[in-house]
Amino acid sequence: MSGLEDLYPFLGDQPADAGPVLAEVARSTREKSREVNALRRALWDRHAGDLATAAHLLAEAFAAGNKLLAFGNGGSATDAMDLVADLTMPADPRWRPLPALDLTRDVAMLTAVGNDVGFESVFVRQIIACGLPGDVAVGFSTSGSSANVVAAFAQAKRQRISTIGFAGYDGGRMAQPGLLDALIVAPSSYIPRIQEAHATAYHTLLCMMQALLQERDAA
Questions:
Q1: Cβ-contact 129, 139 below 8 angstroms
Q2: DSSP state at residue 188
Q3: pLDDT-derived band of residue 28, with 50, 70 and 90 as boundaries?
Q4: What is the DSSP letter of 37?
Q5: Whole-Å CA distances, 208 to 46, 52, 54
Q6: What whole-number distance in Å separates Cα of residue 171 and Cα of residue 1?
Q7: Domains in the chain, please, with CATH?
Q8: pLDDT tens for residues 91-144?
Q9: Percent helix, percent strand, percent coil in the chain, to nearest 5
Q10: Phi, psi of 71 (to 5 degrees)
Q11: Most buried of 66, 153, 189, 214 (most Cβ within 10 A)?
Q12: Strand ordering across the sheet containing 182-185
């Protein structure tokens, strides 16, 4: 064998007729698409009002000159990064850039606090340092119970910072009364689908918020 078969010997064992394999890939793709579309619909049916609440919170905060602080772990950290990128460098030329901080981006800070204080405090310490009354904290946790995310929300509340959460399952610890001003839950236990639904939800939230800001500007 040579080329790819040197690295992947199993490629040499594939049947000459790739039709069944391609048919299975197509079937699997359609099934995944149905699953995530159903979850997006379920999220919207349950949380359209919460997304509207979150959009108004953000619009009011940005109109007053405040900022957003976003955070999460693992795949949820990438959602926080994407949200901040879409705010600071919006793809739509009609949208204004808005101040936002990604609390997952500073490796030195994360490892320092994680090592010296504890991983539960990696976002708390940044909320204390960077958060001001009137800001908005947006946290992502597929379980809804990530200790550092829940702790950051509790700290944000102490500093009179508004709180918006994205969770999966049944909302987990993020669903406890009084912790969040708006909670958007993707009702699933399958993490990839939860994160896909979250991405749709927060991009929808940005559209709603930017529309509110444009209405303010036009008034």
A1: no
A2: -
A3: confident
A4: H
A5: 17, 7, 9
A6: 52
A7: 18-218 (3.40.50.10490)
A8: 899 999 999 999 999 999 999 999 999 999 999 999 999 999 999 999 999 999
A9: 60, 10, 30
A10: -160, 160
A11: 153
A12: 100-102, 68-72, 136-141, 162-167, 182-185
CA contacts within 13 A on the Cβ side of 47: 31
d(CA 52, CA 205): 8
- DSSP letter string over 83-112? HHHHHHS-SSTTSPP--EEETT--HHHHHH
pLDDT of 136-182, one tens digit each?
A: 999 999 999 999 999 999 999 999 999 999 999 999 999 999 999 99
* CB-based contact 122:113 (threshold 8 Å): yes
CB 104 within 8 A of CB 81: yes
Alpha-carbon separation of residue 110 from 1, 7, 120 (angstroms): 47, 37, 10
Distance of CA 179 to the CA centre of its chain: 17
- Which residue from 85, 86, 98, 75 is spatially nearest to 186, judged by alpha carbons? 75
* Cα–Cα distance measured from residue 109 to residue 107, given in angstroms and rounded to the nearest whole number: 5
Q: How far is it, in rounded angstroms, from Cα 61 to Cα 34?
A: 36
**DSSP-derived secondary structure letter, 146:** -
Name the helix (H) or strand (E) containing 162. Answer: strand 162-167
